[in-house]
Amino acid sequence: MLYKNAYIENSITLSDIRVKDGKFAEIGSQLEADPGEEVVDLGGRLVLPPFIESHVHLDATLTAGDPVWNMSGTLFEGIACWEKRKPKLSKSDIRERVNKVVRMYAANGIQHIRTHVDVTDPKLMAMEAMLELREDLKDWMDIQIVAFPQDGILSFPNGKELMKKAVEMGADCVGAIPHYEFTREYSVESLNFALELAAENDRLVDVHCDEIDDEASRGLETVACRALELGLFDKVTASHTTAMHSYNNAYMLRLMRLLKLSRINFVANPLVNTHLQGRVDTYPKRRGVTRVKELTAEGLNVSFGHDDIFDPWYPMGSGSLRDVVFLGLHVTQMMGYEDIMNSYKFISTNAARTLHIQDSYGIEAGKPASFIALDAKNYYDALNRDSAVVLSVKDGRKLAEAIPAEKKVLF
Ligand code: FE2
Q1: pLDDT tens figures, 134-170
Q2: Domain of residue 219, CATH code
Q3: 28, 37, 150, 379: which one has the fewest Cβ atoms less than 10 Å from its Cβ?
């Protein structure tokens, strides 16, 4: 298969892409079709490596308003709504919603998802359902599963045992939630436990880390320190880190040295955290997003996630990461020309590093032939005009396509 006339990753010259046996065989200009080879004209469209959702909770998606809406928009009312939804949870309920959401993602050019699955459930029912879905959907969507202790590891009965069981069952990553543990001591112990569990079982780590406006929430320094000491480095990710927004600059200076030594990844969730954070502030109200600009400037890897899609904690979401990037750039004040042009990396290349899949990801000869095409010439235009993903190809197979909507102005 020969794909002609693509602007690959904001290039200003056109390229052609040859795909053979599910791999990129050749990338160059004006490639000639082999006898009998199928040719697709991409018509001067932008081609990117596939989008990646690096942080979502699939098991809760599509439950907003069922049975009640979160009227205040706070995290705590969200938890109360979820308690009312929980009696309806079953494997078939989870399967039905996840199947829908995965297809919403696929339509928007996403080919990889890291999902956090609540394991503070003695039956581990959601974990069991997600493991089945990971297998069922593997030809269309790569799903990574994080064992996520929503109610804590030390602060929930049998929390450690449930985490170990989830890893035994096949979770890809170990999670933690230090800011939600009962005490600072529990917070540190939970992180030591989580990172050691990952090291012993050769798993990745993704911690819900300091998702609170409390400047004294300092789980991150323990995560980074243990990532360094255990030699886990970039296998470790700190999600949210919204308390960093409120750290004093002297502490931040000291912390940054450790973060750079640790080489851990970060995930910011701009839609959900601008919505949930700052809720106890009067004015000024904090923006609730970690220091993306500063971390990026120091060479640390940051990706963006959606976090919640139409659930008790966030009432919006269509499975497109475009809005995540769009708001993320505004709220982090990364609106320079190059910032905007390169911002697709927050949901592609950087996210591949977060998921630790960078070796098999990217538009290069020899790698799996996975890419998307957008109805624009470069990402600045695509982001600004909310351009459709017109084609998504995974391992050489067409996964999704779209015909861009035509708008008619009658004057
Ligand atoms: Fe989350």
Answers
A1: 999 999 999 999 999 999 999 999 999 999 999 999 9
A2: 3.20.20.140
A3: 28
How many domains, the chain?
A: 2
**pTM of full prediction above 0.85:** yes
Q: How far is the CA of 20 from the centre of ligand 1 (A)?
A: 38
How many residues would you count in the chain?
411
Single out the residue of 106, 154, 95, 156 nearest to residue 129, CA to CA: 95
Cα of 315 vs centre of ligand 1, distance in Å, is: 15
Closest CA to 234 of 224, 242, 244, 243: 224
Ligand 1 centroid – CA 303 distance (Å): 13
Ligand 1 centroid – CA 137 distance (Å): 22
* CB-CB contact of 322 with 383 (8 Å): yes
Catalytically active residues are 211
Q: Shortest CA distance to 178 belongs to which of 165, 193, 168?
A: 193
Tokens of 371: 């890419």
Q: Are 267 and 202 contained in the same domain?
A: yes
